[in-house]
Amino acid sequence: MLYHEPRGIACNVCHGERGEKEWRLEFYSHYRHTKRRREFIANPINQLDYKQFRRGILKRNRFMPIYRFTEKEIEAIYFYIQEANKKREENSSQ
């Protein structure tokens, strides 16, 4: 499955088993000899609509590895996350 074994670092390492993980990264930038504390926050990806999800994968970002997924692979990952969360909700309501 692409979510657990893509060509590179697995999505679930940073985003959790169902895309539910939120994480925060603090770092210092060095720009023109000034140090500024910066913060990067990755919100859970299981709450994104498809358009936002796709944009997040295709957009260059210095924290997330670049993947060269096809459209079908992006759709498959998105629907995998949606199904995993749907099953979780069904199991918790029983």
Defining traits:
two-stranded antiparallel sheet, 2 strands, 94 residues, 3 helices, alpha+beta
Structure characterization notes:
With 94 residues, the chain is an alpha+beta fold. The chain has one domain. It has 3 helices and 2 strands. It has a two-stranded antiparallel sheet. The protein starts with 10 loop residues before the first helix and ends with a helix. The model has no long low-confidence stretch (mean pLDDT 84).
The largest sheet has its strands arranged as: 1-2
- Determine the oligomeric state from the structure: single chain
Number of strands: 2
Provide the low-confidence segments as ranges: none
Structural class: alpha+beta
Overall pLDDT confidence = 84
Question: What is the count of DSSP helices, taking H or I runs of 4+ residues?
Answer: 3
Q: β content, as a range?
A: 15-25%
Topology order in helix (H) and strand (E) letters = HEEHH
The structural domain count equals: 1
Report the radius of gyration as a whole number of Å. 16 Å
Task: Give a quick rundown of the structure.
The chain contains three helices and two strands, in the order αββαα. With about 90 residues, the chain is of the alpha+beta class.
Topology, please?
Elements: H1 11-15, E1 23-31, E2 34-42, H2 50-58, H3 71-93
Antiparallel strand pairs: 1-2
